[in-house]
Amino acid sequence: MNMKPILVIATLFLLSAFTACAQKPSATPTDGNPSHYDLSAYPKATDTVKKPEGEWRAELSPAAFDVLREAGTEAPFTGSLLNEHRHGVFVCAACGNPLFSSDTKFESGTGWPSFWAPIEADRIIERTDNTLGMARTEILCARCGSHLGHVFDDGPPPTGLRYCMNSVALAFDAK
C-alpha cells in the first residue's frame, strides 16, 4: 500500500489546524492582566452575591439597574468610561468583581469601552444571547450575574476578541 497520499493528507490536515489556531489565538487567564495587578484585595469570583430585585433596585441608579439587572444597553458614545485612559482595574459596578485591566482596553470606535481579554477568565461568564434576532455572546459578571455587555470576534491581537462593555456596568479603580 502506498502511504504517500495518506501522509500528504495528514500533513495538510495538521497544517490547516495549526494555521487556524495561529490566526485566532485564544485568551489565557493572564492575557487580561499584562501588568499583573495584585487582585488579592478584591473579592474572589467564587464569592457569589445574590440579592432580591428590590435590593438591587435600591442600590443601583436606574440606568445601572437597567443594564446590569435587565440586560439593557447604554447609548453609544455616552458612557463615562469610554475615554478613561488611566492605569487601573475595571470592576463590576454592582459587586466590585475585577473584570478588565486598563492594559487590555483599546479604542474600538464602537462607542463603548472595549477590551481584548478579561483580567482573569473565571471573572466572567459567557452566555448565548439570541435577542434582537441575532446570535451574540453575552458577558455576565461571574460573581453577581449582572449583564456587562457582549463579546465579538473582531478585536485586536493577541486574542482577536472585543469585549464591548457598558460604562454604567463598570467602575474604575485607578492604580
What does this entry look like structurally?
By secondary structure, this protein is of the alpha+beta class. The chain has a single domain, classed as Beta Complex (Metal Binding Protein, Guanine Nucleotide Exchange Factor, Chain A). It has three helices and nine strands; from the N terminus they run H-H-H-E-E-E-E-E-E-E-E-E. The strands form two sheets. It has a six-stranded antiparallel β-sheet with strand order 3-4-8-7-6-5. Strands 2-1-9 form a three-stranded antiparallel β-sheet, with no helix packed on it. It is globular and about 40 Å long. The termini are far apart. Residues 5-30 have low confidence and may be disordered.
Set down the secondary structure blueprint.
Layout (H helix, E strand, L loop, with lengths): L3 H20 L29 H7 L2 H9 L17 E5 L5 E4 L3 E2 L7 E2 L8 E6 L6 E6 L5 E6 L9 E4 L4 E5 L1
Antiparallel strand pairs: 1-2, 1-9, 3-4, 4-8, 5-6, 6-7, 7-8
